[in-house]
Amino acid sequence: MTQPAEEKTLVMIPARMASTRLPNKPLADIAGLPMIIQVAKRAQEAKVGRVVVAVDEQVVFDVVQAAGFDVVMTSQHHQSGSDRIFEALQKADPDGKAEVIINVQGDLPTVEAEVVRASLRPLDNPSTDIATLTVEITDEHEKTNPNVVKIVGSPLSDTRLKTLYFTRATAPYGNGPLYHHIGLYTYRRAALEKFVSLGPSPLELREKLEQLRALEAGMRIDAEIVHSIPLGVDTPADLEKARAILLSRQS
Known about the structure:
By secondary structure, the protein is of the alpha/beta class. It folds into 2 domains: 1-107, Spore Coat Polysaccharide Biosynthesis Protein SpsA, Chain A, CATH 3.90.550.10; 112-229, Spore Coat Polysaccharide Biosynthesis Protein SpsA, Chain A (Alpha-Beta Complex), CATH 3.90.550.10. Helices cover 31% and strands 25% of the residues. The chain has helices at residues 35-46, 58-66, 81-92, 113-118, 140-144, 189-197, 202-207, 212-216, 236-250, and strands spanning 9-14, 29-30, 33-34, 50-55, 70-73, 100-103, 130-136, 150-157, 160-167, 179-188, 221-225. The strands form 2 sheets. It has a 5-stranded mixed beta barrel. The chain has a two-stranded antiparallel ribbon with strand order 2-3. A hairpin with a 2-residue loop joins strand 8 (150-157) and strand 9 (160-167). The protein is globular.
């Protein structure tokens, strides 16, 4: 008997307490709940698979467990969210039943369920190792802002790109749309295992973009084009925006 798609998919949410710009970020209150619980609820609303939170502090573990979500403790010394979810995957699914892992960052409390579901679509192509998301840039300032990571990609359809490069520069040159990369990844299990086994790559270190490690290793990343950018909470101002968004949804 084959497994239903939801049983083959894990949504993993890495959460770390060591944020310099927003201390104790996972526990910040948003509309009456800690941020990490709001993220877990958004992931649960997507209804794509089991949700597991990967934490590095006992206080966050206790909060997540009390809210009724699966949670695993991971090392405080991981260099990236990918490393953290790989450790969590081994603990949460030691028998290897999950074939697909969605990495939803722990600071996306307003991410929409449809955006999470969209991250699965590129894996319809068996040649795709990793899926991610992108949105067309409409703000002229963002086109030259190095904090807005751009995807250079070859169109596969009206809603999908085969990624060729990720960059902080304004690229590609010439007339045509530019695409803002959204850092939500969906991995085939074997692709995640390969990715975390690789050392940092030259272009990754130069651009300070972890996903370039996969491209330099010959892995294929396809990006689904969506129409909204999830709010990443990195600063107190972002936190206030997230509170306003979720309070407006509740009302």
